[in-house]
Amino acid sequence: MNITVVGTGYVGLSLAVLLAQKNHVVALDIVPEKVAAINHKKSPIQDEYIEKYLAEKPLDLYATIDPQEAYRGAEFVIVATPTNYDDERNFFDTSSVESAIRAARTYAPEATIVIKSTIPVGFTAMLQAQYQTDEIFFSPEFLREGKALYDNLYPSRIVVGSKTDKAKQFSSLLKACAMKDDIPVLHVGSTEAEAIKLFANTYLALRVSYFNELDTYAEMKRLNTKDIIDGICLDPRIGNFYNNPSFGYGGYCLPKDTKQLLANFKGVPENIIRAVVEANRTRISYIAETILRKNPKIVGIYRLVMKAGSDNFRQSSMIAVMEQLKSRVKLCIYEPMFHENSFHGVEVEKDFNKFKQISDVILANRMPSELQDVKEKVYTRDLFGKD
Hints:
The chain is α/β, with parallel strands linked by helices. The protein folds into 2 domains: 2-188, NAD(P)-binding Rossmann-like Domain (Rossmann fold, 3-Layer(aba) Sandwich), CATH 3.40.50.720; 197-379, Rossmann fold (3-Layer(aba) Sandwich), CATH 3.40.50.720. It has 14 helices and 16 strands. It has helices spanning 10-19, 32-39, 48-56, 67-71, 95-107, 123-131, 148-153, 165-177, 190-220, 225-233, 254-264, 272-292, 317-325, 352-358, and strands at 2-6, 24-28, 61-64, 76-79, 84-86, 91-93, 112-115, 136-138, 158-160, 185-187, 298-302, 330-334, 342-343, 346-348, 361-364, 378-379. The strands form 4 sheets. The chain has a 6-stranded parallel beta sheet with strand order 3-2-1-4-7-8, with helices on both faces. Strands 13-14-12-11-15-16 form a 6-stranded mixed beta sheet, sandwiched between helices. A two-stranded antiparallel sheet has the order 5-6. Helix 9 runs parallel beside helix 12 (272-292). It is globular and about 65 Å long. The two termini are 37 Å apart.
């Protein structure tokens, strides 16, 4: 098949690499440096499997910044451009998706368009009415940052928001390029598929928030958080996973998806969804206040990235904590992925040993081995060394 993928972030690039194993794939992006890296078989994002496959696999993959070149001859166009929730306007910005669809309809009018970007519930139905076609549909992704290609090679499920022949062909393309056998495939309406994405991510955010609130309670009451979590997670209905306390949920999906789902509840009775959004804000404030009670002169911020194996700072809970601290105490950041001298008005220290030396308290979302020699300075809620 001739497939065009629009956007080369975690979603787009992982899909482009996955499908280029058995199809001709053209990746379109607006950043020349990312395009050049892909064409030189280098990954512009940090992802172990993407890096390995680009370097070692015989992929039929080409990247370009030219829309006309990218869309020419495409049978499927996969839209994986960034979307985000605007808190001030209470609005989900889908302009990049709409722009990509307009271009696809212009340069490849016969192509089937698959939206992979996160969108509001009801958005695809609006587009289908606007363009008077059922060959625009939504297919949610369920990927982890830093493991996006792995999660496409070994997917938990494939969900496609359409039951047309082209939709079934698309799910077959994904299955054919995966390494896992017996992948559950679900064909539903596009509006149901949009709801699946938002409700799934909000449930994950709820689980993060639940164990964080448990940890807040235990820490304030001087109880052993780990013992409590171990005890409740022996119940198989709860399970011993996704239960490691943190400074809050963040990243590409959970913050915007929870807010978007809450906005979609307008006119519908709810309590839990709003609580999930508010719980994350409460947790971040609690972490900041806990640090201030230690009366440090300098607080070291260890890493801005969301998680190990990722190069994403977007909506990082560490940045949210930092923003609450920076007007009240001197901060210093150590982030080897960031090459400027300051970030959000806070000094970036390039010398790791100096960073450890000058920091009175070091804030670390996850406890790495390289901080073990100053562990008495480290404040972390990492109890299990995972997630």
